[in-house]
Design a protein that fits this description.
Radius of gyration: 24 Å
CATH topology of one domain: TIM Barrel
Number of strands: 12
Largest sheet: 7 strands, parallel
């Protein structure tokens, strides 16, 4: 779906570590069926021009050499280094209900709670007292020197782009990450605001920790302006954190343009595109069972090929022989969702009389509350065009 839409997709952390069929040599991954499948699947219909597939690395991934494997064996062009846990201050947990599996994950370098190699824990598991184990990823505490050396190594192996992924931390952390990104001449960095994530995190922490996306973007833009004045390298910025529709994307980009060009070059999304795929596959399964709701049939029809506004376009591009696969996998659902987003962005831009994304700027926005104006620096509605308004009438 991402490949035919021309969007980049990031393979998240822990894929190789969780792959039951992965092969390790000297604690380094030398083969991962799961990661190989993801990369090859994306490239099947990728045009090689728009988008690409990136492989993300956290601490465990780097320790087991996932970035090296992805670059050397799978010829991945983009490696994304994860600072922290994205939208989360901690996290990356998976519940495991098999003792041998828990032991395997610990041997691969993960923190597993309770300790599956503890004899008393094993006995408690057999008795049913301990019913499951939690696999946790370590928090990110990057060493700048090590990071820069690793980046040099990856580039020497042919990696074309280095991305960084981080979350909604304190302003000093934003400054720290931006400075390292500048030193490494990173190509892009994604900041993930509170309200983001894929739902795997401890609920109390996600509710109480982190910074909402709008505050986070304001801090990031402040850093960009300081770095620009100092002549520092500024990576392309992607914002994430609860984005699901076109007006949020337009606002994020416009807010980042102080008159030259937008600092925000992209918006990263997870839950919304995943939902588009899952929901489309859900209704396809209902159609197979002849169990579609009547109101759905009346609106969209009863055959899967009639569910998507993009069907005729996909047939034209990939042929009728590939349409069934695109529908069954949810790719058509994702493509149609992105088509909706793209159309919505164009409509909003035309409304502003802006015909290129890089022409969107802060003058296209207004703050509805004093709090929003204070945080973003965007004028309130009653202040918009105030001086220009008077000059037009008095000159």
């Amino acid at each position: 779906g991402a490949a035919i839409s021309g969007t980049a997709i990031v393979v998240g952390e822990n894929v190789c570590g969780m792959d039951k069929e992965a092969i390790f040599s000297n604690n380094q991954v030398v083969y991962s069926k799961d990661l190989e499948f993801r990369v090859k699947t994306y490239r099947e219909l990728w045009d090689g021009k728009y988008g690409d597939i990136a492989v993300q690395n956290n601490i465990e991934d780097e320790t087991m050499g996932v970035d090296i494997y992805a670059a050397s064996k799978l010829e991945v062009n983009i490696i994304e280094k994860k600072f922290g846990q994205g939208a989360k201050s901690i996290g990356g947990e998976v519940r495991v209900r098999d003792l041998e599996r828990a032991i395997e994950l610990k041997k691969r370098g993960y923190i597993v709670i309770p300790d599956p190699e503890d004899k008393s824990v094993q006995e408690a598991f057999k008795l049913g007292i301990v019913k499951s184990f939690e696999r946790h990823s370590r928090i990110g505490k990057p060493d700048p020197q090590h990071f820069l050396e690793r980046i040099d190594l990856l580039r020497s192996m042919g990696v074309k782009k280095i991305w960084i992924k981080t979350g909604c931390y304190r302003p000093i952390d934003i400054a720290f990450v931006m400075k390292i990104a500048a030193q490494a001449k990173a190509d892009a960095i994604t900041f993930d605001g509170a309200g983001g994530g894929t739902g795997m995190s401890p609920v109390p922490m996600m509710n109480e920790s982190g910074v909402p996306t709008i505050y986070l973007e304001a801090w990031v833009l402040k850093a960009c302006e300081i770095m620009k004045k100092k002549g520092m390298h500024i990576p392309d910025i992607a914002m994430a954190g609860g984005f699901s529709n076109e007006h949020q994307i337009v606002k994020a980009i416009a807010m980042s343009n102080f008159g030259d060009k937008p600092y925000i070059k992209a918006v990263a999304m997870a839950r919304a595109p995943i939902l588009a795929v899952m929901k489309s596959r859900y209704f396809i399964e209902l159609s197979k069972k002849n169990a579609l709701p009547q109101n759905f049939v009346e609106r969209y029809g009863s055959k899967p090929e009639s569910f998507f506004a993009s069907t005729y376009e996909l047939v034209g591009r990939y042929g009728a022989q590939n349409l069934e696969k695109l529908i069954e996998t949810g790719a058509a659902g994702l493509y149609t969702y992105f088509l909706k987003i793209a159309t919505g962005i164009k409509i909003l831009m035309v409304g502003q009389r802006k015909y290129r994304l890089d022409l969107l700027d802060r003058s296209d926005l207004t703050s509805l509350t004093e709090r929003a104006a204070k945080v973003t620096g965007i004028s309130m509605t009653d202040e918009v065009d105030k001086e220009l308004f008077e000059s037009i009438l008095t000159k």
